[in-house]
Automatic annotation (TrEMBL):
One of its GO terms (cellular component) is cytoplasm. Keywords: CBS domain, Lyase, Pyridoxal phosphate. GO terms for biological process: cysteine biosynthetic process via cystathionine. It catalyses: L-homocysteine + L-serine = L,L-cystathionine + H2O. It comes from the Bacteria. Belongs to the cysteine synthase/cystathionine beta-synthase family. The keyword Ribosomal protein does not apply. The lineage of its organism: Bacteria, Bacillati, Actinomycetota, Actinomycetes, Micrococcales. This is Cystathionine beta-synthase. Its cofactor is pyridoxal 5'-phosphate. One of its GO terms (molecular function) is cystathionine beta-synthase activity.
Length: 330
């Protein structure tokens, strides 16, 4: 019989698929890695078990303990999966720009959720960083994984995502493109690929316009899960050769094109990464192989990116998409 012992054993080993239509006029091969095929639906499943294992080992998390974390949702799902298996309580703190569907997913797994305003600076007492610090201090037996500074985040990508890409491209990858949130994905995956290729693989970050990684100050943007207004310890800029800034409008348009033209329904940070990858790939040749990490699926964004009225309300689509929803003619 072939089956996994637990749901957590199915994390990782996500497939690569080639882009075909979006790459018209581009000589390089562009492959995307489908992280939404992880059991919790995102790349964050990878970091969760590694972070919790380490916390148990270091005595930071004891039986009956509570996991408290500020997370845009995906890390919460990964942590909730592991917590469920091992009997921990989870309390997640989210910014209010996160879609309701993402919140409902967390509560479905049994986690508790606290929503905080996006519009306040990180040092404000209501910011999602401050609220999670306070809860971690007040709840007895609380452990805060602190994904922005926990070295086990990048380490999990160094040990799994990087080797998978190297194996699945037979060592022929020339460029890695990944969005930067905590920076764990690009740091861990990029470090592995640079080491194994002796520096040959180029590492390209994708960042929302206005975020610090591409020289901004953290001006609000709508794409979720990427961009920051501070420099997390999980991000090592020495691994990254270039960062490409992408506007919300370009990220969301590309996200919609991925669904319509490639059949790949993913979130806005995936569209952002593909937009950056295609810009970079324009200058590359037929021998180049670009791998783009797509962190999560599109189901959590149906009321936003995939909703014409929502897109138009922000001026993101000048022309309404033709033939989307038709009223029944009476
Ligand atoms: N996209 C989404 C949707 C995410 O949730 C995250 C994680 N914050 C990222 C991209 C970025 O990954 P990382 O934190 O490893 O940089």
């Amino acid at each position: 019989m072939k089956y996994a012992e637990t749901i957590i054993d199915l994390v990782g080993n996500t497939p690569l698929v080639k882009l075909n239509r979006l790459t018209e006029g581009i000589a390089a091969t562009v492959l995307v890695k489908l992280e939404y095929l992880n059991p919790g639906g995102s790349s964050k499943d990878r970091i969760a078990s590694r972070i919790i294992d380490a916390a148990e080992r270091d005595g930071l998390l004891k039986p009956g303990g509570t996991i408290v974390e500020p997370t845009s949702g995906n890390t919460g799902v990964g942590l909730a999966l592991v917590a469920q298996q091992r009997g921990y309580r989870c309390v997640f703190v989210l910014p209010d720009k996160v879609g309701e569907d993402k919140i409902n997913v967390l509560t479905a797994y049994g986690a508790e959720v606290v929503v905080t305003p996006t519009s306040v600076p990180p040092e404000h007492p209501d910011s999602y960083y401050s609220v999670s610090d306070r809860l971690a201090a007040e709840i007895p037996g609380a452990f805060k994984p602190n994904q922005y500074f926990n070295p086990n985040g990048p380490r999990s990508h160094y040990e799994t995502t990087g080797p998978e890409i190297w194996r699945d491209t037979d060592g022929r990858i020339t460029h890695l493109v990944a969005g930067v949130g905590t920076g764990g994905t690009i740091t861990g995956t990029g470090r592995y690929l640079k080491e194994v290729s002796e520096g040959r693989v180029r590492i390209v970050g994708a960042d929302p316009e206005g975020s610090v990684y591409s020289g901004g100050t953290g001006r609000p943007y709508l794409v979720e899960g990427v961009g920051e207004d501070f420099w997390p310890g999980a991000y090592d800029p020495s691994v990254v050769d270039a960062v490409i800034a992408v506007s919300d409008a370009d990220a969301f348009r590309m996200t919609r094109r991925l669904a319509r033209e490639e059949g790949i329904l993913v979130g806005g940070s995936s569209g952002m990464a593909v937009e950056a990858a295609l810009r970079a790939a324009k200058d590359l040749g037929p021998g180049d192989i670009v791998v783009v990490i797509l962190p999560d699926g599109g189901r959590g964004y149906l009321a936003k990116i995939f909703n014409d009225r929502w897109m138009q309300s922000y001026g993101f689509s000048e022309v309404p998409d033709e033939s989307t929803v038709h009223d029944i003619i009476k």
